[in-house]
Amino acid sequence: MLLENSLKKILIIDFGSQFTQLIARKVRELGVYCEIISHHKSNNIKLIDKNVSGLILSGGPLNVYQSKKVKFNKNLLNSNIPVLGICFGHQIISKELGGKVKQSKSREFGLAKVKKVKESILTKDFFTKNENNVWMSHADEVTRLPKDFKVIGKTNNAKLCIVENTKKKLFGIQFHPEVTHTNRGKIILRNFVFKICKIKRNWSSRDQKLKLIDQVKTQVGNSKVICALSGGVDSSVVAKLLSNAIGNRLTCIFVNTGLLRKDEEKQVVHTFKKRFKINLVYVNAEKQFLNKLKNISDPEKKRKIIGNLFIKIFENYAKKIKNVQFLAQGTLYPDLIESKSVTGSQTSKIKSHHNVGGLPKKMNLKLVEPLKYLFKDEVRKLGLELGLNKEIISRHPFPGPGLAIRMPGTITKEKIKILKEADHIFIDGLKKNNLYHKIWQAYAALLPVKTVGVMGDNRTYEYLCLLRAITSEDGMTADFFKFEKSFLQNISNQIVNNIRGINRVVYDVTSKPPSTIELE
Ligand code: XMP
C-alpha cells in the first residue's frame, strides 16, 4: 500500500490542500522520509505499520461536516501514533473527538499574530517575546475543544489556534507552518518530527543514491534499458543513475531537434558520451523538424508536430537496439501525486507526454522511474551526489518544443540562428553578473515584427528581440525579475551590435498570471 516499506516515515494524509506537497518537502528537508496519501485511503488501517512514526493531516478546501466527501478513519487518532493536524487537519481532529467546528465570523487569509498561551514541546523555540507571525488561510475554525485538549496559542480571530492533547500525542494548528510566510514554521515541524515522533534522520542524498541504484538493479535484472535524454535535470539524473546501476546495458537517445539552445547538443554529447562514457545515440534531426515546421505559425500545431516527430524518431532508433525491455523516464513525485490528487488533476499524464511522448503503451516497454518518490530539489541533490556538475543540475527549465515556442510566427533557419545567438548573449550576461542562479528561468525570444532603426547613418529594418526573466517557486506563478537598468542596457547593446537581424530589444515586465512564462 505504501510506497517504501523499509524506512521509518511520517505519513501525510492529504485533504486536498494546495500546500500538501510543501509539508512533504519540509519534512524531507529535515532529513526524514515521508509519503503522502489521499484521505480516501485513510480507511485502510494497514497503513499504520511499525514504520509509520507520525501522521500529519493536511489542510484542505472541504468542510469537516461534509461527511460524503471527507473520508477519514477516526481510529487513526487512537492508534498511539503522534498526529499533527494543520488547518483542516486541526479541525477534523476536534470534530472527530467531540469538539465543534464552525464557520469563522471573520475569515482569515494572510498574516496573523499568534500569541503564546502556554509552553509546549510542539512550540519550543517558536515564539519570540511570546508571539509570532503566521500565515492563515481558513474560513472555518474550531470553536470547542474535545476533552483533555489544551490551548497553546491563540490569535485575535482564532482562540483555539494551537492545541494539544499530550497524553494521546495529538496536536492541532490553525495556521500553515509549511509556508515560508509563517515565521519559523519549520521549527514546529522539526519539534513534531524529532521531539514528538522521535524519528531519526534517515533521508540523505547518499543513502538515497545507494538505495536507488540497488532498486534499479533489482527491477531491471539482466535486461536492457533505453532512456530519452534531453540534457535537462531530470533526464540527466535518470541517465547517470541508470548508468551507475547497469552500465552499458543502458542506451540513451538524444534527439537534436535543431530547436535547442546554442551548442546544447555539443555539451550534452560531451558530458554523457565523453565524460561519463554512457552509450549515447545522437540523432541529428534538424532538417526533419525544420521541414515539418515549414510555414506553420499556430502554436498548438507547432507543439503537435514536434511531439509526434520526436516520438517517431525515438521509436525508430529504439527499435534498432535489440532486446530492450525497459524505458527509463524522469517522473517526479509531484507528477505522481497530482495524478491521484483529490482534485483528480491529470497533470502527470501531460508531463509524461513531455518526457517521452507517450511511448510506453505503444512500445510495450516496462517503465523504470527511479525518481518517482523525489521532489525537484531532491533530484538536484541526487544529481550532485552522482557526480553531475552544477551546470547541468541548476539549469533553467527548457520546454520540450524548445525555441519553436520562443519564436511566434513561422520558423526559419535564419530566425533560429539569430535567436540562438541572442539567447546566448543574454544567458552569458546573467552568468557573468552572478544573476543566473537568482532567476528561475530566463530566455530571449524573437518576435515576428520588424521595426526601423538607424545604425551608422543607415536605416535598418530588423526583428524585435524580447527578453524574459522570471522568479518563481514552481513555474505555476511567476514575477518578472527586476534588473538594474545598466544590465539591460548592456545586454541590449551587445545583442544589437553583434547580431545582424535584430535592431531593437524589449524586456517583458508581465507576471504569471496574467501572462505565461513562455510566449506560446
Ligand atoms: P508556461 O509558459 O505554461 O510554462 O507558463 C511553465 C513552465 O513549463 C515550461 N513549458 C514546457 N515544458 N514542454 C515542456 O517540457 C512544453 O511543451 C512546455 N511548455 C511550457 C516552461 O518553460 C516553464 O518552465
List keywords for this structure.
Rossmann fold; 3 domains; nine-stranded mixed β-sheet; five-stranded parallel β-sheet; 520 residues; binds xanthosine-5'-monophosphate; GMP Synthetase, Chain A, domain 3; alpha/beta; globular
List the helices and strands and how they pair.
Layout: E1 9-14, H1 20-29, E2 34-38, E3 52-57, E4 83-86, H2 88-96, E5 100-116, E6 131-144, E7 150-154, E8 162-165, E9 170-173, H3 185-196, H4 205-220, E10 224-228, H5 233-246, E11 250-256, H6 264-275, E12 279-284, H7 286-293, H8 299-320, E13 324-328, H9 333-339, H10 347-356, H11 359-363, E14 366-368, H12 376-385, H13 390-393, H14 413-432, E15 441-455, E16 458-471, E17 479-480, H15 485-498, E18 502-507
Parallel strand pairs: 1-2, 1-3, 3-4, 4-9, 10-11, 10-13, 11-12, 13-14, 16-18
Antiparallel strand pairs: 5-6, 5-7, 7-8, 8-9, 15-16, 16-17
Helix pairs in contact: 4-5, 4-12, 5-12, 7-8, 9-10, 14-15
The chain binds xanthosine-5'-monophosphate (XMP).
Short summary:
By secondary structure, the chain is of the alpha/beta class.
Explain the overall architecture.
This protein has 520 residues and is an alpha/beta fold. The chain folds into 3 domains: 9-196, Rossmann fold; 207-393, HUPs (Rossmann fold, 3-Layer(aba) Sandwich); 412-507, GMP Synthetase, Chain A, domain 3 (2-Layer Sandwich), CATH 3.30.300. It is 33% helix and 25% strand. The protein is built from 15 helices and 18 strands. It has helices at 20-29, 88-96, 185-196, 205-220, 233-246, 264-275, 286-293, 299-320, 333-339, 347-356, 359-363, 376-385, 390-393, 413-432, 485-498, and strands at 9-14, 34-38, 52-57, 83-86, 100-116, 131-144, 150-154, 162-165, 170-173, 224-228, 250-256, 279-284, 324-328, 366-368, 441-455, 458-471, 479-480, 502-507. The strands form 3 sheets. A 9-stranded mixed beta sheet has the order 2-1-3-4-9-8-7-5-6, sandwiched between helices. Strands 12-11-10-13-14 form a 5-stranded parallel beta sheet, sandwiched between helices. Strands 15, 16, 17 and 18 form a 4-stranded mixed beta sheet that branches. Helix 7 (286-293) runs antiparallel to helix 8. The longest helix has 22 residues, at 299-320. Xanthosine-5'-monophosphate (XMP) binds next to loops.
